[in-house]
């Protein structure tokens, strides 16, 4: 299992690039610090294909800060409650896995916070989770530069880890500047199981990506499959010819509609299965399409060059050039995203809403807000009550001022009547309605799409309707469950009562 951490400095600003990073490095779990999320941001808008998110925003709804953990959707998790002493330390602990369980935590200590309360809080939380006797991994940005032991708090931090038999795995600087620092850490009680600990240059943030591989913990990736009819190589002319040459006598020899329907399917299905066989496909998580935009790719390439130039010669000018390139990437991403949805809406509105649900707002229940600026104001409820209580008197006063004393003329009553009576639909009306349907990829229970159905020869299509007894021109929508046990979807059936 591959674990990683990144101080991302705003999840919403880098969500699409974060998804690309996860796909590139195939991380199973990534811990994020400085998410900059608050109660106004719903989880449904934080879409990373194939991953779920658990987060803990900064207490009190303050700006900045916040931690989160993104992990593969199929991984089972359980949030652990740990004692908190009210320090500025922000943490989130999860128990991950089903059979081989591990504990993964993310932590962030603001650089301006007091060191001693944060370390005391961290010690209590670590002691609590270590009592579970499971492999434990804490990843985060603690703003403690272990490359400089003379700095305040570094010795106390290292002593804390030693007392709890913990090991800090990262040994290279994680934040590049004129004075590189190692402030992003991976702490564990099982260093022998952690291999391939790396610091990977990352263009998203001014912090680098740190990662490690946990041996002995393997949660297989679950493949998502779907069974569909393959229409990629279908020859409509050949299929129509086979339908025309087929023996349909079994349909006309039947006495009731159920037997006719069964006989029709017995002839229909073998031909359809031959030309459009059912195939099982593996679904792959699609990255954000606008990341493939040429302007976006060029901006990202310029950002990589600026990053390498800054690493070779750290200075204020090279750092400023890197900031400029990062802003250019954000601008190009916003433009490409807007252009993608504009094009999608112009040419396929149904697909637009599918893309919105896939990349922007996922379906599901909204996350309830636990805190809000309004709730923090103790006088807010009274102000709201006073506002609505004053509406009635203010409206009455306005009406009294505008009253001239004259009586209004009576308003004549308006009486309307109407009726609606459904009637059976005729075959020409049905044919017209079907012809107006979109030739989309929408399919019925048998996998036959509207596009394929419209391409079948009219003689076969007409025969399949005219072959039924009673009135071939008048159809009604019936209760399918009461006519045939195999009919599990609504269908059109002949009206035996038609004249």
UniProtKB/TrEMBL annotation:
Q: Which Gene3D superfamilies match?
A: Endonuclease/exonuclease/phosphatase
- Region annotation (Disordered) maps to 403-422
Q: Which InterPro entries match?
A: Endo/exonu/phosph_ase_sf, Endo/exonuclease/phosphatase
**Molecular function, one GO term:** catalytic activity
Q: Where is the Endonuclease/exonuclease/phosphatase domain?
A: 6-207
The superkingdom listed in its UniProt entry is Eukaryota
**Which PANTHER family does this entry report, sorted A to Z?**
ENDO_EXONUCLEASE_PHOSPHATASE DOMAIN-CONTAINING PROTEIN (PTHR47510:SF3), REVERSE TRANSCRIPTASE DOMAIN-CONTAINING PROTEIN (PTHR47510)
Q: What is this protein called?
A: Endonuclease/exonuclease/phosphatase domain-containing protein
Q: Taxonomically, what lineage is the organism? A: Eukaryota, Metazoa, Ecdysozoa, Arthropoda, Crustacea
